[in-house]
Write a structure and sequence with these properties.
Layout lengths: L1 H30 L9 E7 L6 H18 L4 E7 L4 H9 L4 E5 L33 E5 L3 E3 L12 E4 L7 E7 L3 H12 L9 H8 L21 E4 L5 E2 H7 L11 E3 L13 H4 L3 H11 L6 H20 L1 E2 L14 H26 L6 H23 L3 H19 L6 H35 L17 E2 L2
Parallel strand pairs: 1-2, 1-4, 2-3, 6-8, 9-10
Antiparallel strand pairs: 4-7, 5-10, 6-7, 11-12
């Protein structure tokens, strides 16, 4: 009996220990010790509406956040989203990407009437909300055009404010480290109310004015003991490698700090998520490879397939039937408006050729992979060119000369064995120099063919003649 009581006590003691251990683990999980709970650090980005490129930045934000998750960062991933961001986007970020979304009201930009103000920066001051994330010890604030090459969790050891100087005298706000503080956030809002000096009317000008002495601060080096630093620091250039540095050498060779993050602070149309970014810009395909591995292209693939089938159908039809210009009439007897009509016909034909290269460009989904976007564009332009060739009875090779020139330029730019960016630029320039006379000669021949077509009575019967009109289509 005594042994049985001892065994029961032992079992009771073990059960109590297990329950206490579960309580401790649960508490740590709630306080951020667990992988799925609240953590002490965060990578944050912002989203707002009101620009022509809202969807592109939404896709870019998703790719960046998913790439951070794949790198295994030990931090929350947060998106500071204005309240007008579509609900389905917010739901996708939360449910599919595992991102925490913080909804905020847009901050009024007091610099709108400033002479050099750019309207696309109107809502970038929403970035100041990062200081209101006070449940985190440190936040790395990011622009959506950052491409991470490796994990950067060591940045959470930096001080109250840390940023990279891409420009020799002005730090870049595409990535910076901050210590959240409601006191600092309220002070920033006050500075907005009194319209603090801001050179560009955007977040970068405001923060450069708010932290004017950062250039004189020491460089950040991660402490080996893992403690958090106090104060402000400059970050090594490796945390914000301007893509233009790569274009000069066609490789990374940044000596300052780890080569961790690439940024694309260029004109909006040269951001890496556009399908034409590669091979025009060599790093475009690197960003798209990150998207392919982390997010995919399921939203654009149906549009690509529909366009491709449509183009192939039109191309097949133009091979089987050849529209004529029998409805146009030309009177060899001098008429008042004859010369004007003939000139208009030439202009219409040339504009049609120009449209055959611009319209397919506009129809390709902007954020598709370049290896899908360029073939679709070339297929579309070839299809429209075939219509023009058949309608105006133009020489096919002359009309397609520009098409072959574009194809050749893509191969020249995509050639992977250039020693550096200068050699690549010279090769592209040399190719364009050699192609220019050929394209001009093809244009001259097209104009000459149009003139011959106009003068052929077979295609332009005299006004008032009772000769039967040609069939609408003519087989080859």
């Amino acid at each position: 009996m005594g042994m049985q009581r001892g065994v029961k006590r032992l079992i009771r003691f073990m059960v109590i220990c297990v329950l206490m251990g579960c309580c401790v683990v649960a508490r740590e999980h709630e306080e951020g010790g667990g992988g799925g709970g609240r953590r002490k650090h965060a990578y944050a980005a912002m989203m707002y509406m009101g620009t022509p490129r809202d969807y592109e930045f939404y896709v870019a934000t998703r790719v960046m956040m998913r790439s951070l998750a794949k790198l295994g960062v030990d931090a929350d991933r947060v998106v500071i989203a204005s309240v007008d961001v579509p609900t389905r986007w917010v739901r996708t970020l939360e449910k599919e990407d595992g991102v925490k979304v913080v909804s905020v009201q847009n901050l009024k930009n007091p610099y709108e009437n400033q002479g050099n103000f750019n309207i696309r920066f109107k809502l970038t001051l929403n970035k100041l909300y990062a200081w209101s994330l006070i449940h985190y010890d440190r936040v790395v604030m990011l622009d959506s055009d950052n491409m991470f090459l490796q994990k950067t969790d060591e940045l959470f050891m930096c001080g109250q404010f840390c940023a990279v100087f891409i420009n020799p005298c002005i730090f870049h706000t595409g990535l910076f480290v901050l210590e959240p503080s409601m006191e600092v956030f309220k002070n920033m809002l006050h500075e907005l109310e009194i319209v603090r000096e801001n050179p560009d009317g955007a977040d970068q000008g405001f923060l450069a004015s708010y932290f004017p002495d950062l250039l004189n601060q020491p460089m950040f080096y991660p402490p080996k003991n893992g403690t958090k630093l106090v104060g402000t620091y400059r970050l090594p250039l490796g945390y914000q490698m301007d893509a233009s540095y790569y274009y000069l050498k066609l490789r990374w060779s940044i000596p300052c700090g780890p080569n961790s993050v690439v940024t694309f602070p260029s004109a909006p149309w040269f951001k890496p998520w556009y399908w034409w970014s590669w091979p025009v810009l060599p790093l475009g395909v690197s960003w798209h490879e990150q998207r392919r591995h982390n997010l995919g292209y399921s939203s654009e693939i149906p549009i690509i397939l529909i366009q491709a089938v449509l183009y192939i159908g039109i191309l097949t039809a133009t091979r089987l039937a050849r529209p004529s210009l029998s409805k146009l009439c030309y009177n060899r007897r001098p008429e008042k408006h004859a010369s004007f009509l003939l000139s208009s016909l030439k202009l219409f034909a040339l504009l049609s050729i120009l449209l055959s290269y611009t319209l397919p460009f506009l129809l390709v989904p902007r954020t598709i992979h370049p290896l899908l976007g360029w073939p679709l564009y070339l297929l579309g332009s070839a299809t429209l060119n075939s219509i023009i060739i058949n309608v105006f009875l133009l020489p096919p090779l002359s009309v397609m000369t520009t098409w072959f020139g574009i194809l050749g330029a893509l191969f020249v730019m995509a050639f992977p064995w250039y020693s550096n960016g200068v050699v690549r630029a010279l090769a592209v320039f040399g190719y364009a120099f050699c192609c220019a006379p050929i394209v001009w000669a093809s244009l001259v021949r097209i104009v000459g063919s149009l003139q011959v077509l106009i003068e052929r009575e077979a295609y332009f019967p005299r006004l008032g003649d009772n000769t039967p009109t040609a069939e609408f289509t003519k087989l080859y």
